[in-house]
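Input structure tokens:
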């Protein structure tokens, strides 16, 4: 997979043979699944306030968005947790791999797939309970030429996600902003548009360190 400054370059890292390499990487699968489990715990983090966990047997329309679902490693874990999942990805090369694996996934009939851009999701207002995004959200600004453009895209996307979520909606994002300034820009885009939240850096001094945004709708 071609790397740029040590991180994947969008979209080249996910097209054609690179999407195959991505999907067949055992390291990637393990990493994405482990991170998704952690994000599913962060959804109910007490620092965001107490929130009762859903009873999936009673609440049959409890939907979670998997933003930038790639080839479905994160999606598979969310299905196993009991969520109804809407997996969204902008690249057919990646999304098509989820379709081929879907039949082997637990609760496969609880999965909808959308070939769409996180910035323009064709979904009804107040139709989604929560959203997660693993290793994808930093790409939403990849076309922006200036910091001003990036900020505008991040703000518009946060506003849009706010509308999609039901009351008590939460978003957990694991991503790799380029630097602290970009992390601050993404965090503010949510805090300025209807969310309370904060970031968590795990093992910040290690190469494998991860950054998470924990957000709840005000
Ligand atoms: C690291 S990969 C996928 C990770 C995924 N969580 C998994 O388990 O495979 C990042 C994905 O984000 C997608 N992506 C990037 N920008 C996007 C956007 N604006 N809208 C939707 N998906 C996007 C890419 O196509 C790519 O499949």
């Amino acid at each position: 997979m071609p790397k740029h400054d040590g991180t994947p370059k969008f979209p080249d890292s996910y097209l054609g043979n690179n999407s195959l390499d991505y999907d067949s990487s055992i390291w990637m699968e393990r990493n994405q699944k482990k991170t998704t489990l952690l994000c599913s715990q962060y959804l109910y983090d007490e620092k965001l306030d107490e929130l009762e966990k859903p009873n999936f047997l009673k609440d049959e329309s409890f939907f979670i968005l998997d933003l930038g679902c790639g080839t479905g490693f994160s999606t598979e874990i969310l299905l196993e947790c009991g969520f109804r999942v809407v997996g969204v990805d902008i690249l057919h090369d990646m999304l098509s791999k989820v379709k081929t694996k879907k039949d082997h996934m637990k609760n496969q009939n609880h999965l909808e797939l959308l070939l769409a851009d996180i910035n323009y999701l064709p979904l009804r207002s107040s139709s989604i309970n929560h959203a997660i995004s693993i290793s994808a959200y930093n790409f939403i600004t990849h076309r922006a030429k200036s910091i001003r453009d990036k900020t505008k895209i991040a703000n518009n996307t946060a506003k849009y996600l706010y509308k999609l979520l039901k009351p008590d909606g939460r978003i957990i994002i694991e991503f790799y902003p380029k630097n602290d300034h970009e992390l601050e820009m993404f965090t503010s885009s949510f805090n300025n548009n209807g969310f309370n939240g904060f970031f968590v850096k795990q093992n910040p001094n290690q190469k494998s360190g991860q950054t998470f945004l924990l957000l709840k709708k005000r």
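The radius of gyration is 16 Å. The domain at 3-217 is CATH 3.40.50.150 (Rossmann fold).
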